[in-house]
Amino acid sequence: EVQLLESGGGLVQPGRYLRLSCAASGFTFSSSAMSWVRQPPGKGLEWVSSISGSGGTTYYADSVKGRFTISRDNPKNTLYLQMNSLRAEDTAIYYCAKGRDGGWNGGDSWGQGTLVTVSS
Amino acid sequence: DIQMTQSPSSLSASVGDRVTITCRASQGINNYLAWFQQKPGKAPKSLIYAASSLQSGVPSKFSGSGSGTDFTLTITSLQPEDFATYYCQQYNSYPLTFGGGTKVETK
What we know:
Chain A is an all-beta fold. Chain A has strands at about 5, 10, 20-25, 35-40, 45-50, 60, 70-75, 80-85, 90-100, 110, 115-120.
């Protein structure tokens, strides 16, 4: 059974940083593309970033480019999102999600999410 | 960027109804379209990929169709557990983009 468990969320001041983690199990992590998707309170889903199975290819939404960095540690089966220079508009639940068939391809599994609140 | 427009943004339906949600892309995306279901306070759940392929374990009352720019999600015989918000997403090109969502509510 695929399991994705996010952690690292919390309350942080504007301009500060936070690192999210997503611990994966139940599948061959190194063969799976992964993504981060966020959802501001009461709003819709917004794609944030994706990474290939090897970690060699990454993609970012314009809203986070230059501030966020996606990475992975395949031996540890863990996905990360380093978030720097945080802004109030980054407040959201952050979900990690697993791709299918080697790429994103619509994904097939989601974690339960971790809440990030950016506020002074 | 490819814009995804869902309609309606909300709808009211009764148990047993057939429901159709549409999703339109601002440019052709072949069949690189996924549908997700989200219940209040819960993570999204993947329903359909490649416009019409059901994810493993998703009941056949859900179906998807379309190609190019126009897509539909149909739910036959709506059940209480189907009242939720549904999102489409294109993955033809980055940045990946979601529709605004369709909330299916009880009439």
